[in-house]
């Protein structure tokens, strides 16, 4: 039996409940995170690639697969490929009028239209806003939806090596406001924007309307960490992965030619 992939599972869940917005958002989150293999017409030249295209109702579609064996089976012979995440594909193709033929012949096969890629790129591009405030009290996080804690867990697990740990807690600010914060410690220098963006995307893909979550970065010597450990929900962030063998970075969009 062919092993199913996380993208297969997210697609099946979405198809089984087409009216469930949360499952649809979960699918697009999974699509954005998934490393994909693109079928090419010829070997890549530097950062330039020439994807193989098919056409459906006058719309061109790139061919992309979440498993190399699926690509090989579809191609029927050795073929040049390029690696790129779903996020990278959306950023590369936004506004270009080109879609993605995803996993043809597999359980998660789908024609992703150009407008869906443009929407995804815009959604992923919505960065967090910066603000300055001082927390005066911390509380257990309380009634936080499971969708948000699960999304945070996935995003922080994907931030391996960028920080040591994070805590979700209820907060009261010095200006009188109340809400929730995610306190991150042990952040690698320069990693704060990427971590804040990951938290912002977790909130976006959790499906919560008008949700807000503040992110603060604390040094490992900050006394607030002891309070957070008592009342907060802790997320341990994995160590950095081992170095990848030489090859194309799937998170860096190449140039089309």
Structure, explained:
The chain has 257 residues and is an alpha+beta fold. 33% of the residues lie in helices and 25% in strands. It contains 8 helices and 13 strands. Strands 1, 3, 4, 5, 6 and 7 form a 6-stranded mixed β-sheet that branches. Strands 8, 9, 10, 11 and 12 form a 5-stranded mixed β-sheet that branches. Helix 1 packs antiparallel against helix 2, helix 4 crosses helix 5 (114-124) and helix 6 (146-157) runs antiparallel to helix 7.
Please supply descriptive tags for the structure shown above.
alpha+beta, Trna Endonuclease, Chain: A, domain 1, six-stranded mixed β-sheet, five-stranded mixed β-sheet, SseB_N
How many beta-strand runs?
13
In DSSP terms (H or I, runs of 4 or more residues), the helix count works out at 8
Q: Tell me what portion of residues adopts beta-strand conformation.
A: 15-25%
Q: Predict the CATH topology of the largest domain.
A: Trna Endonuclease, Chain: A, domain 1
Tell the overall outline: elongated
Question: How is the biggest beta sheet arranged?
Answer: 6 strands, mixed
Structural class: alpha+beta
Low-confidence stretches: none
């Amino acid at each position: 039996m062919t092993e199913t992939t996380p993208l297969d599972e997210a697609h099946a869940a979405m198809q089984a409940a087409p009216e469930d917005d949360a499952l649809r958002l979960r699918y697009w989150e999974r699509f954005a995170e998934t490393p994909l293999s693109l079928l090419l017409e010829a070997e890549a030249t530097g950062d330039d690639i020439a994807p193989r295209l098919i056409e459906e109702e006058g719309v061109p579609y790139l061919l992309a697969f979440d498993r190399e064996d699926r690509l090989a089976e579809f191609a029927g012979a050795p073929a040049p490929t390029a690696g790129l995440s779903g996020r990278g594909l959306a950023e590369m193709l936004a506004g270009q009028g080109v879609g993605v033929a995803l996993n043809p012949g597999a359980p998660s096969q789908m024609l992703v239209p150009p407008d869906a890629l443009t929407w995804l790129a815009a959604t992923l591009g919505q960065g967090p806003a910066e603000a300055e405030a001082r927390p005066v009290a911390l509380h257990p996080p309380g009634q936080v939806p499971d969708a948000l804690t699960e999304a945070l867990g996935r995003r922080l697990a994907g931030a391996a090596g960028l920080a040591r740990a994070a805590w979700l807690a209820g907060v009261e600010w010095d200006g009188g406001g109340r809400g929730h914060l995610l306190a991150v410690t042990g952040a690698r220098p320069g990693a704060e924007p990427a971590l804040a963006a990951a938290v912002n995307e977790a909130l976006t893909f959790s499906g919560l309307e008008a949700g807000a979550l503040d992110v603060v970065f604390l040094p490992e010597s900050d006394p607030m960490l002891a309070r957070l450990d008592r009342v907060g929900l802790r997320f341990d962030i994995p160590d950095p992965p081992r170095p990848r063998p030489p090859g194309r970075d799937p998170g860096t969009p190449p140039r089309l030619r």
